[in-house]
From TrEMBL:
The keyword DNA repair does not apply. This is Dipeptidyl-peptidase V. Keywords: Hydrolase, Protease, Serine protease, Signal. It comes from the Eukaryota. Belongs to the peptidase S9C family. Residues 481-690 form the Peptidase S9 prolyl oligopeptidase catalytic domain. GO terms for biological process: proteolysis.
Length: 708
């Protein structure tokens, strides 16, 4: 029997179990994953490590402990995980799936610092290699900020960039990769050699790359370690350049590794990502962007044919003009069991798909083909087993928050193993609510939008419009799950939700994406105008006279831009989350390469380019009620970008409200704060769209029926 929520509310969204991506065992019979929940009654979070039986789809509890995380297989039975301790320390534990009681687990090592991003690899010589990331001090020692003596002064002094990044002020410590060999004695694992060794000590290199770098920034294999790091000779706030490095290792007990070798990629100077060793450890597949000042440039899929020659790299689908023959953005990379094929993820029209291609650029004559998968977007995937031709895929969709499936590329089939929400049924959601539209953009191109209707949708009725504008701006609304901007939350309030992917969006080719450069309030705005008009003319069940618009980050910028332009008068209310008030304030941000690219130069070289698309230039036209949301730890767009528009709205007498979180960054992540966020947003839009009035009328009708 499937338990079903009576209504998909913010409380249901935020208390629903959240599963991690699942990691299949070497034999392909089981998969490890974590699941966390939050209780608003008890105001606390729980977290478990569980093992999934792939054949039955049933899972078993292994660890019930909020401090335990990152399970990784050591074989088909034993697994490793991390456990946070007191004063910033971390313990490495090993347990057995066949002995599921935590009392049988044992500590392999205790580390005086916070470690994360675990990678374990069984090497052909029998060695089990381990790599993790952790903060390092300037002299290469393991850093533990929680155990450091607190200074008497809180002053911070900077003479270079970054001063702060994302939500933290920069310290002298930096990320580093640490390695060790897991050896066995008397049936138990221990760290061989001298324990964890800092692979980057004395190099001026740092990896994973902040603020979001993780296990995708490095890999370990039979021949050593590959990793991505920023160029230490370039200003990290002005340039995106990250390089790929190789460190030879044979035993992973080397007390002092050799110096990293930089992998040469002539003509490509941007972000490097997703390095993955082939199974034999001789080759490395990875991706790299061309521009060193464009964070969303197209990643080119590359191959290092031999780690013995780091100066020879081959590009897949290379063209003479340098644009590349595959108009997509490859991300995650997985080698087939025999190293003859690559599987990569890439977006296509609001879905993240797995694509298949030969593992040699010379053999890749045809463009990659999409592998069949369940509906939605792929978030993570692995080979089902060390020798399997099948894939184990973790995905989500607009109605399902976690789905594990087995995909067979050779037969183009996909079979669901486990759906966390029974494909949306536990939320009262279904694919019948999901639709899409296409309309003419501001130029000679088509624009795509996702549509979500209420679960009780009636074609004969009209529903107010919730118009969602995504951030980035180089991003996209996708057929995937979100606990921050979930279209179903708005649809279940009684809206038809339209989520357009206008100029600047990813997944529709680089021409559409790159069209936003120097056009922040131009082409994207006109695309949105066309979208609104298309809805009014072609979706008779949508009441555009009761429309509301919401956006975050660049979407928040667009809300402020719309407010000062004719489209703003089409909406009953607006919601701006962490948006840009004035483009002239872009240098209060941290990653300065972003405005340098998007506004075609620095503010002191091209001030007119910043002024042209400045929402603050049009405040005289502001008139629509607007909710402003901003957080004090948002260093991407400082809180003054929220205070200024609120002050103007209030000064002009326009109905407005400010919601501020002192302990959140660009995203509202804490469950209690997220609940307030949802409550305030829904209260605001429902008030102005008339949804509250409809609910009150319905309640009166129900009461009248009870009386009769």
């Amino acid at each position: 029997m499937t338990l079903k929520a009576t209504k998909f509310t913010p409380e249901v969204l935020l208390t629903a179990p959240r599963r991690s991506a699942a990691l299949p065992s070497p034999g392909g019979t089981r998969a490890l994953f974590t699941v966390s929940t939050y209780s608003f009654e008890q105001h606390k979070k729980t977290s478990q490590i569980r093992v999934l039986d792939i054949a039955s789809g049933q899972s078993t509890l292994l660890v019930d402990d909020l401090s335990s995380s990152e399970p990784s297989w050591l074989g088909d039975d034993e697994f490793l995980y991390l456990k946070n301790g007191d004063k910033g320390a971390t313990s490495i534990y090993v347990g057995s799936v066949s002995e599921s009681t935590a009392s049988s687990h044992y500590e392999v090592a205790s580390v005086n610092g916070g470690i994360s991003n675990v990678k374990v690899k069984k090497l052909p010589n029998g060695t089990t290699a381990l790599a993790v990331s952790a903060l390092a001090t300037p002299d290469g020692e393991l850093a533990n900020p929680d155990a450091e003596k607190k200074p008497h002064s809180s002053a911070k002094i900077y003479t270079g960039l970054f001063a702060r990044h994302w939500d933290s002020w920069i310290t002298e410590n930096s990320n580093s990769i640490w390695y060790a060999a897991l050896e066995k004695r008397d049936g138990k694992y221990f760290l061989g050699g001298k324990g964890l060794v800092n692979a980057l000590a004395g190099t001026k290199l740092s990896s994973p790359v902040p603020p979001f770098g993780g296990t995708g920034d490095f890999d370990i294999g039979p021949s050593g370690l590959v990793f991505v790091a920023k160029d230490p000779e370039l200003n990290p706030a002005i340039y995106t350049k990250t390089d790929l490095y190789f460190i030879p290792l044979t035993t992973f007990t080397e007390a002092k590794p050799s110096s990293p070798k930089i992998v040469a990629t002539p003509g490509l100077e941007g972000y490097t990502s997703s390095p993955v060793f082939s199974h034999d450890g001789r080759k490395v597949a990875f991706a790299r962007m061309q521009s060193k000042q464009y964070e969303s440039d197209k990643p080119r899929l590359l191959l290092l044919p031999s780690v013995d020659d780091v100066d020879k790299v081959e590009e897949f689908y290379a063209t003479h003009d340098g644009e590349g023959g595959w108009d997509a953005r490859p991300e995650t990379i997985v080698w087939s069991a025999d190293d003859s094929t690559l599987f990569v993820t890439a977006e296509k029209e609001a879905r993240s798909l797995v694509w298949e291609l030969p593992a040699s650029p010379a053999d890749a004559k045809e463009l990659p083909t999409a592998v069949k998968a369940v509906e939605g977007s792929v978030g993570d995937f692995h080979l089902l087993s060390d020798s399997s031709l099948k894939l184990f895929v973790t995905s989500t969709s607009l109605v399902d928050n976690s789905c594990y499936s087995v995909v067979d590329p050779s037969h183009n089939t996909a079979a669901i193993v486990s759906s966390n929400s029974k494909q949306g049924k536990t939320f009262g959601l279904s694919r019948s609510s999901v639709d899409e539209i296409r309309f003419k953009g501001a130029g000679e191109y088509e624009v795509h939008a996702l549509v979500m209707r209420p679960s009780n949708f009636d074609h004969s009725k009209k529903y107010p419009l919730a118009f969602l504008i995504h951030g980035g701006p180089q991003g996209a609304w996708a057929d995937s799950w979100s606990t921050r901007w979930n279209p179903a939350i708005f649809a279940e309030q009684g809206y038809v939700v339209v989520s357009p992917n206008p100029t600047g969006s990813t997944g529709y080719g680089m021409a559409l994406q790159d069209g936003i450069k120097g056009e922040w309030g131009g082409r994207p705005y006109n695309d949105l105008v066309n979208c609104f008009e298309y809805i009014a003319d072609n979706l008779p069940y949508v009441d555009t006279e009761r429309a509301v618009a919401l956006g975050a980050s660049y979407g928040g910028y667009m809300i402020n831009w719309i407010q000062g332009h004719p489209l703003g008068r089409k909406f009953k209310a607006l919601v701006c989350h962490d948006g840009v008030f004035s483009t002239l304030n872009q240098y209060t941000s941290e990653e300065l390469f972003f405005p340098i690219h998007d506004f075609e130069g620095t503010i002191y070289e091209n001030r007119a380019g910043y002024e042209k698309w400045d929402p603050a230039q049009h405040v005289n036209e502001w008139a629509t009620p607007q909710l402003i949301i901003h957080s004090e730890l948002d260093y991407r767009l400082p809180i003054t970008e929220g205070l200024a528009p609120f002050n103007i709205l209030q000064s002009k007498g326009i109905p407005s409200k400010l919601l501020m979180f002192p302990d959140e960054n660009h995203w509202v992540l804490k469950p209690e704060n997220s609940l307030v966020w949802h409550q305030v947003v829904l209260e605001w839009i429902n008030k102005y769209s008339g949804v509250d009035d409809e609910a009150n009328d319905l309640a009166k009708d129900v009461d009248a029926l009870r009386v009769e």
